[in-house]
Design a protein that fits this description.
About 40% of the residues lie in helices and about 30% in strands. By secondary structure, the chain is an alpha+beta fold. It has a single domain, classed as Ribosomal Protein L22, Chain A. The chain has a three-stranded antiparallel β-sheet with strand order 1-5-4. A two-stranded antiparallel sheet has the order 2-3. A hairpin with a 5-residue loop joins β2 and β3. The chain starts with 5 loop residues before the first helix and ends with a strand.
């Protein structure tokens, strides 16, 4: 295979994308089943405090859950040899209210990761783009 073939270029692409779509009702069932232990396992203290400050905290956690899933999917393309765990991914808002990504306990140089969240009725969606 020549270095300029399309297949070769895809393997060395410099951008990776992860997307997740989640029904809020499905997330709510997971929270009911797993309780506080589930929330502590998946979300950082900061993320749980953020949700507790808002009336629609469950929706906000569902969106962050989808964002974490999207980041995990994008990172699996950036560095397939090192799995990212949900608890390592933290989604917080910057001073302008935009969601940002922090990866905790990551053994390598961090790629730049952008994330976008949205919700409509009972569905949340998140897209993460990781730049190598």
């Amino acid at each position: 295979m020549s270095p300029s073939s399309p297949r070769r270029r895809l393997r060395t692409a410099s951008v990776a994308c992860g997307i997740d779509v989640l029904r809020v009702s499905r997330f709510h069932q997971a929270v009911k089943r797993g309780g506080e232990a589930f929330l502590r396992r998946v979300f950082t203290d900061s993320e749980r405090r953020y949700a507790a400050r808002h009336q629609n905290g469950l929706l906000r956690l569902a969106a962050r859950f989808a964002a974490k899933e999207a980041v995990v999917k994008a990172m699996s393309q950036v560095d397939p040899a090192h799995a990212v765990m949900m608890r390592q991914v933290e989604i917080v808002n910057d001073r302008l209210g935009r969601p940002t990504v922090t990866l905790h306990e990551w053994p390598r140089k961090l790629p730049r990761i952008e994330v976008s969240l949205s919700h409509e009725d009972q569905v949340v969606v998140a897209c993460a783009i990781a730049f190598r």
